[in-house]
Specification:
The chain is built from ten helices and 14 strands. By secondary structure, it is an alpha+beta fold.
């Protein structure tokens, strides 16, 4: 069975509350954007259901929060304030947890049908826009222009006079600017030697979180001072080195809890935690659940998916 058939198909659930805003721009003549969202998380939560948005690209910008990560087709994608997560229509993904204090804004871009145009563009311009959006990576840093575009779009949605030509034109221009800024942001590269070394260290910690990583040794390998390493690490992952290592260990623990019957103590020992109690404390702090509760929930979720096959 194709993987698309094994995950939930997620469609818009509109609401407009002080903490959760999910609105539709279609009534404003912007059929390409069925979802404009903003979410402020007052408390921690979890979401363990892989899903797709049929025919739509999700573009999410993190404004505030720590320890945020998405599961993107089975790969962990850390997202920090000022970075963007993007998911294509056919790619299963889900937000692994909702940290308290997290703030995000996002849109869903509906892919046009064959021969259809969007946002008043010509056929050739529509094809170019769609092609570029289909090639953006799962994670990249947002430029100041992209951050401003999200803010401006929400400001116009709330302030522009309803059911007017002015509103439709201003919103259409704001959406097109946001999409173009997304493409520009995704093409921004910061490729220097130190950055490449740091990327390698981050990947190593993600691949083998059971090891102990000495901060001075990491700084030496990255050819940075400890202070610069910590700053650059936080910029790339949203966390300082030790906190990121804990994040990687918790991510690995989630996989072991959901795919094996290893005991809690064995998992703790396997991933370098000093004790099962310390592991359980860290796990609950990061996920809002105990390891046993997580294993039970994951098992139930997998059984539900199997029952739909």
């Amino acid at each position: 069975m194709d993987i698309i058939d094994e995950v939930m198909k997620s469609y818009p659930e509109y609401m407009d509350t002080p903490d959760v805003r999910v609105v539709d721009l279609t009534p404003d003549g912007i059929g390409a954007i069925p979802v404009l969202g903003r979410h402020n998380y007052k408390c921690a939560g979890v979401n363990t259901v892989p899903h797709i948005h049929p025919g739509m690209i999700e573009i999410l910008c993190c404004q505030r929060g720590a320890n945020l990560s998405f599961d993107h087709a089975g790969e962990v994608v850390p997202v920090s304030p000022g970075s963007v997560f993007a998911a294509q229509p056919e790619t299963p993904h889900y937000l692994r947890c909702y940290p308290k204090g997290l703030s995000t804004v996002w849109i869903w871009f509906r892919l046009p049908e064959h021969g259809e145009t969007v946002l008043g563009l010509s056929g050739e311009e529509t094809q170019w826009l769609v092609s570029r959006l289909r090639s953006i990576p799962a994670r990249f840093d947002a430029t100041d222009a992209l951050k401003h575009s999200f803010t401006r779009l929400w400001t116009l949605y709330d302030s522009a006079p309803r059911e007017t030509t002015e509103r439709r034109l201003m919103l259409r221009h704001a959406v097109l600017s946001l999409l173009l800024d997304t493409i520009e942001s995704s093409n921004t590269r910061k490729a220097d030697t130190s950055s490449a070394r740091l990327d390698s260290l981050i990947e190593e910690m993600r691949a083998d979180p059971s090891c102990d990583y000495n901060l001075d040794e990491l700084a030496g390998r990255a050819a940075m001072s400890v202070a610069k390493l910590t700053t650059c690490f936080r910029r790339k992952t949203g966390l300082p080195p030790h906190a990121y290592l804990v994040f990687c260990r918790i991510s690995a623990a989630k996989k072991l809890l959901s795919t094996t019957r290893m005991s809690i103590g064995a998992i703790a020992d396997n991933l370098g935690f000093p004790s099962a109690q310390h592991f359980a404390t860290q796990f609950r702090r990061e996920t809002g659940r105990t390891p046993h509760e997580y294993r039970d929930t994951e098992g139930r979720g997998k059984r539900e998916i199997l029952s739909r096959k």
